[in-house]
């Protein structure tokens, strides 16, 4: 799908990208102890900034030399494939970015990708073994087992993009199907319930009894989106539709619809389950990570996978409510992808491409203008998830009106 290009958005993206042209200058502007200077971070390091310049070069709006410079910066340190590596850290992050750089000319960087794939495959196998062993013991998972940022959904997303017909892709998807199947000794709790706080801490504090995470970044929303994308790709995975339906049934019980429109909580506590409804205070900001920007896209993908027009309509009404919220500037003060306006903009743009009508697309120019009006100084935070690189990529999408050639927003699980 293409939408009407917005020249002001493209101009703003150009200026932000120019400010991030030189890896040396960008890194020199960060404090020495700042983790964002770490090369192999997709969230905050060179990997994420490389995506900006890769996409711009692919689209004919940027310099390939800049993309190469940032890729070199990303590979500056020895590649790490430690047990805690994930889509946003280490070998999988490098593999995601390198694969993006080879599009639309497959075959480039063949040796590099082969070596990275070997590392990512081994990491994925180890994670799958641990996850199945945990299920065999009847224990509840931690978020980092399955989520997008740290877990098997992130690794599965890479495999689905890189080699959808590979056995390891099938095995990750089969694990995610199993993740949704009830645990015999956990009556009343969904099998993805976790005994940690939303930040992954075992210091539960306000979360006695753990919580159920709905979000796209750290919660079951990532599983819903990935399984739905696999179904839309036509992959033959046993139990795929049933797993999607199980997650949908749970999220349907959490859905609320008030005067402002439909919404889902970012998470629910044991107390919420006892009272059979989420607390009003659990209504999240309309962000990508935990809010309607991510949750509504996951629901839309599920609706497409299951052919459920009512779910499709509900998802679009939810994103429209966020886009038309007169208090949006207060509810969403940050400009970035993860917590802010850029994430809402990119998710809404993706939803508009699969929408039942043009209502979402009609709202996009106004939201783009609001983002341009609140751009931060480019050097203040160069990173992908919370900073300049991510904002520039979202503006580039609206500026060109075309789907990203690199598929960079697959890292947000908005597409595959």
Low-confidence parts = none
The number of helical elements comes to 18
Helix content: 40-55%
Termini Cα gap? 15 Å
Computed CA radius of gyration, to the nearest angstrom: 20 Å
- Record field, number of beta strands: 4
Structural class: mainly alpha
Report the principal-axis shape: globular
Question: What is the strand arrangement across the widest sheet?
Answer: 1-4
Largest sheet: 2 strands, antiparallel
How would you briefly describe this protein structure?
This protein is mainly alpha-helical.
Describe the structure.
- The protein has 416 residues and is an all-alpha fold.
- The chain is 53% helix and 3% strand.
- The protein contains 18 helices and four strands.
- A two-stranded antiparallel ribbon has the order 1-4. Strands 2-3 form a two-stranded antiparallel sheet.
- Helix 10 (220-232) crosses helix 11, helix 14 (309-323) runs parallel beside helix 17 and helix 16 (341-353) runs antiparallel to helix 17 (359-373).
- The longest helix has 27 residues, at 110-136.
- It is globular, with a radius of gyration of 20 Å.
- The two termini are 15 Å apart.
Q: Layout of SSEs?
A:
Layout: H1 7-19, H2 23-28, H3 46-58, H4 64-74, H5 91-102, H6 110-136, H7 143-146, H8 152-162, H9 167-179, E1 211-213, H10 220-232, H11 240-254, E2 256-258, E3 261-263, E4 267-269, H12 270-275, H13 292-306, H14 309-323, H15 328-331, H16 341-353, H17 359-373, H18 388-400
Antiparallel strand pairs: 1-4, 2-3
């Amino acid at each position: 799908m293409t939408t009407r290009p917005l020249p002001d958005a493209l101009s703003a993206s150009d200026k932000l990208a120019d400010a991030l042209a030189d890896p040396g200058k960008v890194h020199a502007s960060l404090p020495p102890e700042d983790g964002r200077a770490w090369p192999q971070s997709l969230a905050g390091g060179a990997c994420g900034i490389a995506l900006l310049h890769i996409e711009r070069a692919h689209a004919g709006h940027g310099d390939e030399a800049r993309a190469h410079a940032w890729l070199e910066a990303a590979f500056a340190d020895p590649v790490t494939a430690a047990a805690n590596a994930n889509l946003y850290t280490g070998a999988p992050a490098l593999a995601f970015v390198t694969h993006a750089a080879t599009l639309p000319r497959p075959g480039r960087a063949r040796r590099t990708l082969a070596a990275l794939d070997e590392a990512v495959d081994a990491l994925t196998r180890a994670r799958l073994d641990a996850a199945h062993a945990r299920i065999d013991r009847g224990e509840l998972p931690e978020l980092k087992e399955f989520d997008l940022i740290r877990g098997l959904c992130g690794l599965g997303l890479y495999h689905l993009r890189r080699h959808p017909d590979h056995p390891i892709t099938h095995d990750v998807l089969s694990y995610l199907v199993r993740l949704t199947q009830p645990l015999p000794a956990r009556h009343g709790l969904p099998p993805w319930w976790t005994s940690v706080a939303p930040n992954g801490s075992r210091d539960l504090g306000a979360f006695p009894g753990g919580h159920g995470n709905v979000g796209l970044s750290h919660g079951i929303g990532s599983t819903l989106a990935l399984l739905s994308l696999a179904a839309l790709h036509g992959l033959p995975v046993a139990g795929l539709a049933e797993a999607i339906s199980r997650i949908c049934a749970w999220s349907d019980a959490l859905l609320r619809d008030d005067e402002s429109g439909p919404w889902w909580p970012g998470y629910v506590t044991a107390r919420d389950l006892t009272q059979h409804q989420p607390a009003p205070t659990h209504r999240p900001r309309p962000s990508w990570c935990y809010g309607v920007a991510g949750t509504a896209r996951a629901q839309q993908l599920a609706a497409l996978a299951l052919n459920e027009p009512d779910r499709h309509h509900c998802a679009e009404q939810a994103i429209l409510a966020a886009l038309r919220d007169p208090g949006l500037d207060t509810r969403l003060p940050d400009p970035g992808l993860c917590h802010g306006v850029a994430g809402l903009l990119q998710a809404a743009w993706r939803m508009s491409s699969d929408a039942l009508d043009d209502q979402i697309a009609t709202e996009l120019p106004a939201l783009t203008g609001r983002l341009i009006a609140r751009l931060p100084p480019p050097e203040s935070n160069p990173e992908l998830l919370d900073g300049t690189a991510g904002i520039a990529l979202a503006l580039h999408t609206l500026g060109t009106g075309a789907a990203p050639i690199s598929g960079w927003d697959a890292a947000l699980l908005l597409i595959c």
